C-alpha cells in the first residue's frame, strides 16, 4: 500500500504553501500531487514555480504528479494546460477530458483524476487505451462497486495495467460551477472576488436550517460538509486499493497521514473513535458514518 497527498484544494498564501511542501518532502507520503485544480485566478504560485517545486520534491524520492484544473473557462487556461501536459518531466493528473486528450497526443501517461466521470469498466478500458496508468476513484463509489468494476477488469486481463487510488481523508469535492460561491457568500461577483477565498484556508462552511454542516464552499467548488475519514475501513481496502489519498488540510495533515500509516500497519485493526463520515464507502448517504 502507498500513501499520497492529493493536490491542495484550498487557496493558501505562498509562504504557507512553501512551508507545507517543505514538510511534505520529509513526510512518509510516497506520492505528492501539485498544482491548482480549482480556480485559475489563484496565482500565489505560477506554473514555473510549481515545476520548480516539483523538481525539489522529486529529489526527496517522492513520485510527483502535476494536477490540472477540473473546469476550464478561458483560452488562457487551455494554453496553460498544454504546457502542463507537455512538461517533459512529470506525469499528469488529468481532471478533465481535454487534459486526457492532450496527454494522449503527447504520449504522456496520466492519472485519471477523481473529477473524471469514470464509473465503470468500459470507461476504464477506453482510458487505458489513451494512456491511463492510475485511476482515482470518483468520491461516490463504494467499496462494493469498486470491487465489482475491478473484477470485470480482471476478467478482461486488464486489472494489472493500472493502479487504483481512493481519497480516504478530507472534505470531498462534489461539484464545480462557473460561479464562485465563496465570492457570493461575501456579496461579491466572481469578477470582483478580490481572491477572498485566501481568507478561508479550510473553505467556508454552509449550514442547513437545522444547523448541520451541509457543505464547504471553496471558490467554484462545492465540497462535503463533513470530513471523510476511512481510517476505520483500511482493512477492507487490502487487495482492492493500491494508494490511499490524504487531502491536504490547513492543520495536522502529516499527523493524519502518519495515523493512517500506523493504523494500516497494525497486525489487527482497532476501530478509532471519530466524528467524521464514511457513508459513500459503505454505499449509504455520504454524510453518514457506518
Structural features, described:
The chain has helices at 14-25, 47-58, 75-85, 97-105, 121-130, 143-155, 181-185, 253-265; strands at 2-5, 31-34, 63-67, 91-94, 110-112, 132-136, 163-170, 173-176, 204-207, 213-218, 221-224, 228-229, 243-246. The protein is an alpha/beta fold. The protein has one domain (2-171, 228-277): TIM Barrel (Alpha-Beta Barrel). The strands form two sheets. Strands 1-2-3-4-5-6-7-13 form an eight-stranded parallel β-barrel, surrounded by four helices. The chain has a four-stranded antiparallel β-sheet with strand order 8-11-10-9, with no helix packed on it. Helix 3 crosses helix 4.
Task: Give the SSE layout.
Layout: E1 2-5, H1 14-25, E2 31-34, H2 47-58, E3 63-67, H3 75-85, E4 91-94, H4 97-105, E5 110-112, H5 121-130, E6 132-136, H6 143-155, E7 163-170, E8 173-176, H7 181-185, E9 204-207, E10 213-218, E11 221-224, E12 228-229, E13 243-246, H8 253-265
Helix pairs in contact: 1-2, 3-4
